[in-house]
Each structure stands twice: as C-alpha cells, then as structure tokens.
Amino acid sequence: MKLKFIAAAALAVCSTLCVQARKVHTIGDSTMATYDESTTVTRGWGQMFQQFFKGDITVNNRAKNGASSKSFYMESPYWLSVKKQIEPGDYVLIQFAHNDEKSNGCDGDELKAYYKSIGDEAKANSTDYRGTTASGTYKQYLRKYIEETRALGATPVLVGAICRKYFDGNTIRRNGRHDLGDKFDLLKDGKLTTNNKVAADDHTYDYPYQMQQVAQEMDVQYLDLTTATKELYESYGDAKANELLFDGNGSTHTSAMGATLIARLAAQLMLKAGILVDNINLTSDLSVNPSQLDLGQAYKGQTVIKELQINGFDLTPAEGTVAVTVSGGLSVSADGNDYGSSATLSYKEGTVIGSVKVKCNFVAAGDVNETVTVTCGDKTIEVPVNGKCVELADGVPTSAYWRLEKDDNCTAEGPVNPLGETYCEMKLQRYSSPNANTTWPEGTGFDATRKVQRNIIEGEAWPAGEIDEVSTRWIEFAVKPAKGTTFNVNEISMYVCGCGGNGMRCKIYYSKEENFANAVNIADFSGSMKANNMMEVKATPVLELKENETLRVRIYPWYNSSATGKTICVSDVKIGGVAVDGSTGVNTLENNKKTTATYYNIYGMRQNGMKKGLNIVMENGTAKKIINNR
User: Which of 28, 93, 300, 346 is the most exposed place for a label (fewest CB within 10 A)?
Assistant: First the structure.
C-alpha cells in the first residue's frame, strides 16, 4: 500500500514537472494592450509579442487600457477571466505602473477617504481610485498576482513598465522611469502634503524598483524593461524617438515600430533570464505577423481592412525592398490610401519594421480563402487569409434610436426592448447646442441650432493626468431582443464631440457579454476631439443577439488636463438590424409599430434612463412592463 502511494506521488510530481508551457499570458496597461488597426495607429507591445516565439507557444494578450495593478485585480472581468484561461505550465507576464501613479504616489482609495473626511466632496469625486503607493498597495497587488498564478500551476514573471518619453536633455528623467521621487504627494497621519522630494538614491516612490523588491522577496524572475526602453529611447534621441517610436499623441503610447522593438526587447530579456529559451524567436530573418490573417465575418457588400506587420533585422542585402503581392480577391496598400495587387516597403541598414493594409471586398456569400505573399531577396513567406461572407437575414427591420435632443426617450422599431441610457461616474448636464459654431458632418442636414445631450463627470471637475479611458466611467446604451426573437445587429452609430475645449477624449465599445467582457472597440478619439465638431461613429458588426442576451454600447470619456465644466456631447445613437424568429432563424414576425419608451421608478418619478432595481417602462404614454435591472 505504501509503495503504491509513493509511486502515485512520484507520478504526480513527474506529471507536474513535465507540463509543457503552451501560453504566455500578458497582463498590464495600455502600453501593452491590443488595438484595432482600423481605429488608431497606436499599438501595444503585447500586440506585437507573438512574432518573437516559435513552436506552439501562443501569446494571450489581456492587457487593458487604463488598468493599474489595483483596478485590473478588483474590476471584473479582467483578472478573473485571465485566471480561467491559465493552465499548468503557462507563463504570466505582469506589467503595471503607469496608472498606479494616478494619485501622484498616494493610494487612490485612501486619498478619496481623506477628502471625504475633510468635507471636500468635489476633490473626493475627482480622485482616481486606481492609484497605489509604490512601496505599499502596489506591492500588495503584485503579490496577489504571483500567489494566484502559482496556485494555478503557472509561472509568474514581473516586468518593469516601459518608460514614458520624458527627456531631460539626452536622458529619460526620473518620473519617465516611474520613479516619482522628485515630486510626489504624501498622505500621513491624516494630513496631505504635496510637491515632496527625496534623494535620487531613495527608491520609496520608484515603482519598478519596488516591483524588483517583490521579485526578490517571492523568488520571481524580473524583466527590467524599464531600463531597456530607457536605453532604446535615448539611443534615438527625443525628436527621432517621437517620430519613429510613438503614436503622435503624447509620450506614453507607441507606434507599430516602437511596439515591435519593445516586444523584441522583452523577448531578449526572457532569453537572457532563461525563460522559454527553446521557444524564443530572435532570428534576423524576415517575419510577418500575424502568420495567418483572419478577416472574421462580414456582410455581403462590406469591406474589411486588416494590417500585416512585416519585420526583418540584419537583412542581406542591407538596403532594398520587400515586395507584397495578393491573390485576386484582395488588394494591398503600403500607405493605407492607394490599393492595388502589390505594394513595396523600402528599408536601409538591414532593418525593416513596417506594415501593409490588406483589403477584402466581400462580394459573395461563403468562405473567403486568399493569400498574401511577402518576398525579400530569396526569402518568401505566404500568409493564408481567411474569412466568411454572410448575408443579412431576411427579417423585420429593427432598431433602437435615441435622438437625445430634448430627453433620453428611445424610439423602438420592431421586436426590441431598449434598456435605456445609464451612467457610471457621469451625469446629464443639459440638452442644448454645443456651441453657436458647432459643425456637423456633411449629409446630416443639421446645423449649430441642433440640440444634443451634454454629459459631464460627477463632481464636474475632470482630473489631471488622464491619458486613457477610465474603466469605471462611462455612458451606456443597451438593448435586448423581444421574447422569442433573435436580433441580427448590423449597425451601431452615433455622433459625439467635446464642448468647452479641445481636450475631450473618448473611446467607444460594444459587448454582449456579462460584465462587458471582451469588448469590441468601434471608435478611438484618444488623439484629438476638436471642440464643437460633431464626429460620426458608425460600425457594421456581424452580431447575433439572442433573446436572453443584452447588447451594451459604452462611451468612455476623459479630459486631457484638469478642467471644470467640460462636457461630452452625444446625439442620434442607433442600434439597428433585423429580427427573426428565435427558434427558426427566419422571418415569421410581424413588423411592429414604432414605440417611444420612457422610464420611471416605482414611485412614479421620471428617470434619466434605466436604473438599478425596478423600472417601469412606459411606451407611448402607457405602462407596458416592469423590469428588474440587476
């Protein structure tokens, strides 16, 4: 019996030791995140990481815009959803710091509590909870990731956050390296002091240094990507780094070239640390990412554009061109404007880091199977291109439309239940025209007298230092199909702009998953929003919404400096498509008349959209249903 137990234990140990890593999970912030190439030129280094692995290693990039070590852990579904994907033998790369600095060295929750204790509700409302203390709460959350990763049989790796491009002469200054020691706030003994400073060798407020301390404490490998990116930026100099490595919208987010070079640095650091040595791909040969291009699904008549990243290092000859050709159903462009059957990328000094756009016009229902061929010298790479063209079902035209000119009423056509407009850390200011000089896109027929919905942050003071979306601040519009129906959505559209200044920014997403998981980005205005200039947002998703599912569309606004009174204007929100019988998938429904829905609480008071708890839905002045919005 004892021998059997020993044999079983030995087998279990052997099984654990022999587990092969199959995935590298990357968690972090916007500098690591994946971006939609159709909405922005920004790229995260995690998005470019896959090309530096060989064998069957898959990179699962789950970095989230705006995440700090605290918010990624606390907010569902981020860390919880990653944990569900982690398997024994996997690796988890953990990079946080950018958004941990939001409270300038203080913990956001503690700072909020302080302001409330002294009765300053305005400052409490504008304080960002995501902030952590470098030598305190930041380290606590890093330990949680390490412990929970190990509990799943995987290996955690801590990664120093990439630098911000904050030059002081020819070097990256202290705060660019995420060390706030030159200027930080301190909350101690119930008092707040600002503009504090410590000596250069005092690392109390140095986030990468404190991460390294956790790595030593818990016997975790540490990749010093902070120093590596400092040296990378300094090798280019301020102007060249800005031109070649960054996205043109500040000193934090990178272009495709910058993200690729940083991803390669991360792979080099893994190799040096002895992590996945047999699977690291640092070949100087030509590579194309992704190795298989997935166009996804598109409706007949729709055009889809995807990006291919083409890289090569130490190429021979040292100067030349890379030729890209496509099969008959595709066209390609090196500049994103002129498309044809071929394109070329020029390179010098043996290095090419570039991209091409591949366009497909979906003309006939069925599978799409095409090829992109990339050639440099005697090296040729063929990239399979796959997709599926679908025809929109022949059903009842269905839509939910919020005009947003005088109220938040929703006009519904067809079998759909609008769930109204809701806010989180935002509120309605008023309905009015943005400005006497407001411009609208051509074809709308609207002019500056058109009223829109103007929304403002709770407390009406936008915080300083925000460079990306805040996951707890949004404006949401939502719908559900009527009972027994399936809603095939093919349009999500609206108009947005900032009012009161040019600093308004926003990103717009949709999701039909619980807790807004795996959201799809349809608009990215993180670069510029000219005040009072209404901008059109229009997406054509291939999206099937069943009767028990909810589609949510969210606007995530922020302002690029501290400001008061600035509003984000929203108008003409529409979710449209066709509805079919949920059991047969064909049109057996009668076309419903248009209805206008408004919302009241159980006391009969009009609400600004659907709220948590019981909601009375009025359609055309008649009470139709009570919805318990949990």
Answer: 346
> Mean pLDDT throughout 538-547?
94
Return the DSSP state at 38.
Answer: T
Q: 576 and 398 in contact (C-beta within 8 Å)?
A: yes
How far from chain centre, in Å, is Cα 353?
23
Q: What percent of the chain has pLDDT over 90?
A: 76
Tokens 């070949």 label which residue? 283
What is the rounded distance in angstroms from the CA atom of residue 11 to the CA atom of residue 58? 27
Q: What is the spatial distance between Cα 510 and Cα 524, in angstroms, rounded to a whole number? A: 13
Candidates 519, 422, 555, 509; CA nearest to 81 is 519
Measured CA to CA, the distance from residue 62 to residue 55 in angstroms comes to 21
Beta strand pairing status for 567-581 and 452-457?
antiparallel
pLDDT digits (tens, 9 = 90+) for 49-95: 999 999 899 999 999 999 999 999 999 789 999 999 999 999 999 99
Cα–Cα nearest to 554, from 576, 521, 577, 527: 521
Residue showing tokens 């949920």 = 582
Question: Which tokens hold the place of 520?
Answer: 């799809």
pLDDT value of residue 1:
40
Phi and psi dihedrals of 355, rounded to 5? Answer: -150, 160
In the chain, what is the straight-line distance between the N-terminal and C-terminal CA atoms, in Å?
Answer: 54
Q: Nearest-5° angle of CA 130, CA 134, CA 139?
A: 85
Contact status, residue 327 vs residue 384, Cβ threshold 8 Å: no
Q: Which two tokens stand for residue 297?
A: 């699904």
Q: Which residue has the tokens 């496509």?
A: 326
Tokens 């010093």 sit on residue: 224
Strands 23-27 and 426-432: unpaired
Which of the 8 DSSP states describes residue 21?
Answer: P
| Cβ 285 vs Cβ 379: under 8 Å | yes
Quick one: how far is CA 80 from the chain centroid? Answer: 17
Domains in the chain, ordered, with CATH?
A: 22-279 (3.40.50.1110), 287-390 (2.60.40.10), 396-629 (2.60.120)
The DSSP 8-state label assigned to residue 32 in this structure reads T
CA distance 16 to 114: 48
Q: Write out pLDDT tens, residues 204-260.
A: 999 999 999 999 999 999 999 999 999 999 999 999 999 999 999 899 999 999 999
Alpha-carbon gap, residue 278 to 212, rounded angstroms: 25
**Tokens standing for residue 169:** 């002469």
Those residues with Cβ within 8 angstroms of residue 11's Cβ, 6 or more apart along the chain or in another chain: none
Residue with tokens 């025209």: 433
C-alpha radius of gyration, the chain, whole number = 26
Distance CA 432, CA 98 (A): 37
Tokens matching residue 407: 């109220």
